[in-house]
Amino acid sequence: MSADEELAKDLGLLSAIAIGIGTMIGAGIFVLPGTAVARAGPLAALTFVIGGVTALFTALSASELGTAMPKSGGAYFYINRALGPLFGSISGWANWLGLAFASAFYMYGFGEYVNQLVGAPALGLGPVTISAAQTIGLVGAALFIAINYMGAKETGGLQIGIVLTLLAILGTFTVVGLLNADLESLRPFAPPGTTEQVLPVTAIVFISYLGFVQITSVAEEIKNPGRNLPLAVIGSVVIVTVVYALFLVVLLAAVPNEEVAGNKTAVVDAAELLFGQYGIFGFGLGTVGWGLLLLGGLLATASSANASILSSSRINFAMGREKIISPSVNEIHPRFGTPYKSILITGGLIIAFLLFGNLEILSTAGSVLHLIVYGLLNIALIVMREAEPADYDPDFEVPLYPIVPIIGTISSFALIAYIEPFVILLSAGLVVFAGAWYLLYARQRVESAGVFAGWILDRSEELPDAAVAAADTVRPDAAKTPAAGTNGGFRVMVPLSNPRTEKDLITLGGAIAKQRGGTVHAVHIVQVPDQTPLKRAGQNERIDAESQKLLEQARADAETFGAPVETHTVLSHRSFEEVFDAARTFDADQVVMGWGPTSHGRAESRIDELTHDLPCDFLMLKGRAFDPSRILLPTAGGPDSVLGADVVRLLREEFDSHVTLLHALSEDESQAEGRQFLEEWAAENELADAELIVDDRDVETAIDDAATDATLVVVGATERGLLSRVVRGSLVLDVLDDVDCSVLLAETARERSIRERLLGLEKE
């Protein structure tokens, strides 16, 4: 079963910070100090600080984007949404391969630490010699690939435990180091020839900061995300930067630099040296210190490698969902319930990188690919701020905009220049490959053009022709074709939950999609009790069978109209709220849903907010069997009546309906004025041949009388908040509950300003 999972908000601030710290404190601090000190001397501590500050600018941008767009895929999703699928392809591939390089680096470091215990020899394979660390890393990589393939995963409590253990080990080392530190040993702080190595070394150690953006991938699971997500993202970067800097300063002040420089497990040897100066009952503690830091290195490298492999499947899922790559990559294993193809592909890359790379190449390749992503992420924030799409409403906003994202962009891209030319060339080749991949493969399949292209094309008369032509050239093929007369442009989403109402809703949605040359998206929203994990519910065969049956019937009903149909199952702890999230996820232009007594649970307190900020036009159908043969459309003007007229025209074209327009006179309106208004309105909305009725009675009486001969009443929501009253069962127009025919309520999407949201005001 294919399902977009909606998870309960059960991650607190501590858990969210643990995710960020747990993915950052990895092989970087346990393996790279030797390399950093060998090239930069005591300035190695400064390189970790510069890396942290560079990450901090991107962390601020990621925090805003994460609170505005809490979707699986994290940075890739934000870039794809803002900059379009060309840059989405570049960022997706860079993120995916960057995680593979990082995982290979972590496993190489894991091999170095295990080798401290076993002392394995190098392995010769013909003319190729594989070091002991590589051999152990390959075994470890195979183990973690198998674990992810079979679906075993860390729990939130275990992740917190690992993070606290690592911080305790590093803290213990730092305290012991402080007791033995001699700051004079740091002089000269910048030995000759080391200053020019600061930025190149920063580029190498930047891999130590990968992972903070992963917090945004679980934004929907974080309690009070508007507050806790930015605190977690920014806080984890600050904490890790301080820990790294303090650890390096103490290491270099307490241990001779020559003991650290070039040593891949320098921190273990340093711990043995430092702890060896203390003893209990005459026994030295050197072995204890050696064991503690060895345990820390094993935990950090293993945890980071596993997290990277796990994260790669999220990237693949998001790319498959957007059709940048084939969705078949995300095929779920029938037994283990994991995206096994994605894991195997990523695993193959990790093994290849381990075989042909060394620590420095693996770390710099992982760094440069993520720096590309981080630079694009900062640009994505600027685009979203300047374009102001209707659904962009972050709970947290970057301070000092646009200075912060501009510095984040420049610092991320500038740091790439200090990486060795071979890795830069390799990364440039990837960018070219990702661009070619989009142009030759994905452009024919992707449907969403992104915010930036839309912003440019909307201003085609103001902007240079070259910019407009470029934006139009790289747009997806589906986005270049007008909605009418194509199969991919206009999207009608039909949420389904009840087999008894499925046929009527699909009939209406299919007719609209056919007339607009669009696609029906039949979405079965399965509400799962809060006590049941969504992943467990996704393995329920009964739910799977019922969903497949409902969606297969929906597909058959929609295809009778000749309209393409896509089916989706969404598991959620919510029902009504999920309709709005799904409409945004599937980029719906119109939602056709049932109208009747339902239980909305946690949505109850948010109904007004949801229904006053609609992601698209909504049509709600209530009543007996759907019969559009004789349609009554009451109107008093307004955008919702226009939407109603639009729907009526489509139904008339499809079903050859007889249409009657009704206008109930206001208190100060004469019969002649009412007739003139109705005739003009009918002509403007291409319904001039409809039967016209002008009634001087109140609206309810007029509708009740005119509906006697109708089979369908279409009502535009001329009152603000009419949809919310329908949902809560407090509709003022009681006549719509009393008429004998079906009723279709039409309400257009409206965007409210920040002031209106805060004060609860309505647009005039």
From TrEMBL:
One of its GO terms (cellular component) is plasma membrane. The chain crosses the membrane at residues 12-31, 43-62, 83-108, 128-150, 157-179, 199-219, 231-255, 275-300, 342-359, 365-384, 396-416, 422-441. The keyword Nucleotide-binding does not apply. InterPro entries: AA/rel_permease1, APC_superfamily, UspA. It comes from the Archaea. It is a multi-pass membrane protein. GO terms for molecular function: transmembrane transporter activity. Keywords: Cell membrane, Membrane, Transmembrane, Transmembrane helix. Residues 491-621, 630-745 form the UspA domain. SUPFAM superfamilies: Adenine nucleotide alpha hydrolases-like. The keyword Transmembrane applies. Its main location: membrane. It is found in: Cell membrane. PANTHER family: AMINO ACID TRANSPORTER-RELATED, INNER MEMBRANE TRANSPORT PROTEIN YBAT. This is Amino acid transporter. It comes from Natrinema salaciae. The lineage of its organism: Archaea, Methanobacteriati, Methanobacteriota, Stenosarchaea group, Halobacteria.
